[in-house]
Fold these 2 entries.
Entry 1:
Amino acid sequence: MNGSPSFWPLHQQVAAIARGDLSARELVLGYTERLGAFDGTLATHVALSPTALDEAAAIDDAIARGETLGPLAGACISVKDNYLTGNMPTRAGTDVDELSFPETDSHVVGKLRDAGAIILGKTRMHEFAWGNITPPTRNPWNTDCVPGGSSGGSAAAVAAALCSSAMGSDTGGSVRIPATLCGIVGLKPTFGLIGRTGIVPHSWSLDHAGPLTRCVTDSAIILEALVGRDVNDPSSVNSPDARYQPPADLTVSGHRVGVIRNHFTERLSTDVAASFSKALVWLEQKGVEIHEFEVSNLDYGLGAIFAIELASSSAYHEHAIQRGLTNGFKPDVRDLVEMGRLVSAVDYLHAEQLRTELCKDFARIFDTVDVVISPTSPITAWHAGQWELEIDGSLESVLAASWRFTYPFNLTGMPAITVPAGLDRNGLPIGLQIAGPPFSERKILTVAAAFEAEHSYAEAKPNGFT
Amino acid sequence: MDTLPHIFGITLDDERLVQVVEAYRPILGEIEKLRTLDFKTTYPAVHFDPSTAYAKGEKKQ
């Protein structure tokens, strides 16, 4: 590999460290230097590990002794600030001092450390994961723009090569939206595949943990390290697969791909529509069968996810509301946290009934196709402070638009990945979303890797952070 | 009517409640669409497992 190791994909970093061609200490120092140079502008991290260099030195010593280490040995992975960590404080994006969180490793952080990863730091998030702006973090592709959210710090840090990879959480798109807006890969696995003990809850039945990476292979390697039952997470399941890395032969010929024509291809910006059309042409040229579907129940999805998220979030924050602590939340988050009491139990159960129907709708689709694809977001990154924009001739809130194509897969718990799919006319990244039936991670990762391998989009880097 | 906030467990003061209801209005429009569906035969996507509490596991955080 050429260039600074900071820019290498994680899997090449760990291979070089295992061979002794790169030291873990060198990698940590490289990222520390870059954070010093660029994080004043990007504001991606809220804490840096005080033990990262010592951990790196221990890894280098172990390799010098000829020991075989874990699959992530030496990788510098930062985690969203809603993952509990034993050596750094957790704030979940809030400034309310009266709210505190245990200083102990979350399930995911423990698994990452077991695999040899160095937890480099904690990344900035939208407060309590309730939004997709992540102030004051900025997008490396244009620092006037937002990185998306709520895992905005994770996405911007990976895009600007301030860590090897990062972890985020995704309740309605919070891994995939910022990954798309920052031009990287974001994976939301099947609900329950990655244990969530020690991640500050937002909405118990919608929350997913997932990696944000510079390439598809890195997402697969991290997923391999994180699967396995989390006994304290009632939703956790054992992984049906031990390996998620795509096969060497990345052919997609013979695959059957679905496009849901309502909802998922409506109201796209011109450049996103063009990018999606190009992706479909590429698939057809590769011998993929494209099938089209309509899912009428998607018309009710927004009401369903709001009913579940609002009620769940208010239930989690109930005592903070009663104590008046939500007065200290950011105004947008405070509104959402305090309005959950307005959702009736009947509305909540209707929302859960709609989820059942949506799952049945998708199960029928997957009788015919292997995966479904869509743009990840109908829009690219917007300017900080901008709240609305015109899409396909009508005005829409940027917040409503940005999660339109991601939240259905939180309602259905299906795995979904976003991969870079080009740049718009302003040089801002566009993403392609690939989703499949529960536990089809290998399949969606393979299609994503095949797309990535034949396009140079993932190799594009934001200017100004080299 | 003034007892409704109490019935719903709403502890916000009147002025704040007006603000929250105003912010909720567009979301309510989406939730109202759900109310038009007839779900009599659909089991909600909630799962109750009476054996969970008996499972041997680590202490909860």
Entry 2:
Amino acid sequence: MACNPYQNLPSSSFWKTGVTQESPYAIDGIYAKKFDILPSTKIAAAGSCFAQHISRHLKANGYNVLDVEPPPPGLPASKHQRFGYSMYSGRYGNIYTVRQLLQLAQEVAGEWSPQDYIWEKGGRFFDGLRPAVEPDGLESKQEVVEHRAYHVARLRELFQSFDLFIFTLGLTEMWVHKESGTVYPTAPGAIAGDFKPESYYFENASFGSINSDFRQFLKTMRKLRSKPFNLLLTVSPVPLTATASGKHVLVSTVHSKSVLRTIASVWSERDFIDYFPSYEIVTNPRLHSTSYQDNLRSIRPEAVDNVMSHFFRQHPKLNTAKQAHKDDRDEAASLSDVQCEEALIQAFGK
Amino acid sequence: MKKILFLGNSHIGALRKADQLHSLSSRFSCSSSFIGIPGRGGFYRLSLDGEYLVTLKAYKRFMDIDEHAYSDQSPNLIRLSYFDRIVFVAGLCRLDSRLYYPPSSSHVPLLSKSVIESIVLQDSVEDSRLQHELPPLFWRIMALGRPDVVFLGAPLVSADARIFMDLACDSRDNVRKNSECIRTVCSQTLNDNGRPLMLLPSPELLDDLGLCTKASYFVDSLNWAGDAKKAFKQERDMSHANATYGKMILEQTVYPSLI
């Protein structure tokens, strides 16, 4: 019998056995960890809104997810998310693009300062780089400056202390301040501020520029830190709410996700960078889009559970049963409720 | 003459003693009653039955109340509507650092007014360390609509407790800014009768950061019966204030805002 290179491959290598006939809730061989995450591993999490799910599940299951800006003890848990607490490892809100991540790291390292980031709305002032963390805004521009200075100081400690950085790549499209190159998590005017075409431009980052930003980010982190770290990349399966590219939103979504997915593949060839396929688990055709809520954009809590169950097959849950039960209840209350500034753009749609 | 009920735990002792020693009620033309049931097992077991406060026979010795306030039906029921004002003394004063700063944190955050408002006006808390420190009874009596209720809370701990001794400059600035904001929020938060809902001790009673009560106000500290140190088997009492503190609070803060 003649040989062929596919002859001895595992069932996961074939669409029929790996997808069509495979349970989408326990996909064999879809993820093999590159490194261990120990109970002592200090984790920092950031990224687009889908990253909130990952961060919460890791915390709820006993992983050491750092939080350098914890909520005040007297603030009711129901209000943590409203003020950007307990979402990530700091109050930076959603970081959708690699450029945003790079600029934050450069700001923390003292290499760069944002410009035109104090936005006004109705006499209140917002930090345009994280406009959703103070939904009522602050009383003065000076207060925004002071709050940002505290935030950046706390992030310096975060960036110097984590062992593992988990980052969810979300978008390629962004709005940029013409004069300074400052990028924002949302279009000026969506939450606060005023959109002036002469002040901002739209950029749909190419593979090359994201790749360069990512390389620069790693360089900046190495300058900030004295010890090596691991990185775990994921790609958000949440489609774009809207595109400013002029193309159909479906085309733009596939383009963005494809570019980001490629970035993840390229960089996860390094030993210290792993890729976890949350994107593939959610968008698996075997699920016939049932991972999505009725708006075909938001992810159902069950789908997040499915994603995380694949993660925990390689990185087992660490907590005791009692703690898990408590946290699962907390989690259930908040799972379907992530904060997504990007979704606010919908309000401006026709 | 306004009838005022001071309702709380062992911290009532200093206020009652000060009122007795200095005849403060008479000076402010009011009549004051006191209920100071010590400990979490006591005060936090009080409940409401309609407009009546349900007490226990065993609590009688912690009550110094105008006899007309008792219900005709039971000596364990106190008619709250008999009083014009109720001052809550149990629970955390709204300046208390435990509400704002995580205990293990060496950095004090700068908090926005919106966050501070959410803390000041909370009626419940999920943080298990604070669950026994906030009195649900306060909000339940508030919901009755009358009488006029204000919240004072327990004294801030003694400066001897040395909390946050090694704060960096930026953290000290943040404490000052946050304290200022808490005072603004409290002064702007009015009850249905247009009076401040949350009373705070004046800055002169506190340390320079406003996090603690000056240590001198803990000398000869008082609970209901007298010596708080003996009652709580402590060498140094860092939570119960003395009659001088009680006098200052009543004279400067409570009576002027209620009468």
